[in-house]
Amino acid sequence: MPDRRFDAVVFDLDGTLCDSEPFIAAAAAEALRRRYGIAVAIADFAPFVGAGDDRFISGAAATHGVTADLAIDKPLTYQVYLELIPGALQPIAGVHAFLGRLRASGLRLALATGSDRPKLRGNLDALGLAEADFDVVVTAEDVTRKKPDPETFVVAIGKLGLEPARCLVVEDARNGVLAGRAAGCEVLGIASSQAPDLLLEAGARDVARDYTGLPEELLADLGLS
Question: What is the pLDDT of residue 2?
Fold first, then answer.
């Protein structure tokens, strides 16, 4: 086994494995238009990126004076989302090769997302991945408190049976970086959804645009160089 600092990598899903944030924003905006007749701008969702889909939908609705009924609005958002992504949702550049290198090196893999399983499955299908590709999968349905609370990552790390310091979290959003740090992990920021400076300010150790140019020191800590 190569020398390394980490024994596992815990990935967020949206904006981290796939460039899904524009699609879920468009889907939520359409769902809110149908339900309440409001015109929600894509920018209205920005403060709620990485806080889970409940907050993503309800927060944007609240900016227009609407109290979202998530029992109806979230399934409708997912319905629209799953209609939008076939043939359109793209992986973050280099993610498949990176996952392959991690597996080949013997690192354990976890997926810890603020989305429910219908969206998770749609995303994984679009990426040509499966839940079985990860040792642990935690969704919004498995926790009570969403990011930036660390519970999502704490549950995932507990299922891995590892110390937080031995797990690298990969996140695309400030809320997710805060959650990873609060869980006791170092965090790699993927700047697909939010600016690098925002991720660094939240506590990310490194930030990259995608997986094609990761820092050599980080790769060494993963035992990949």
Answer: 57
- How many other CB atoms are there within 10 angstroms of residue 132's CB atom? 8
Q: Return the pLDDT at 191.
A: 94
Q: What is the DSSP string of 113-177?
A: -SS-HHHHHHHHHHHT--GGGSSEEE-GGG-SS-TTSTHHHHHHHHHHT--GGGEEEEESSHHHH
Residue-wise pLDDT for 126-176, tens only, equals 999 999 999 999 999 999 998 899 999 999 999 999 999 999 999 999 999
CA angle 78, 80, 81 (to 5 degrees): 60
Give the count of beta carbons closer than 10 Å to the beta carbon of residue 97.
Answer: 11
The one-character DSSP state at 48 is G
Three-state secondary-structure class, residue 102: helix
Q: How many domains does the chain have?
A: 2
User: Is there a single domain that holds both residue 101 and residue 167?
Assistant: yes
Here the tokens at position 190 are 């993927």
Q: Do 40 and 142 belong to one domain?
A: no
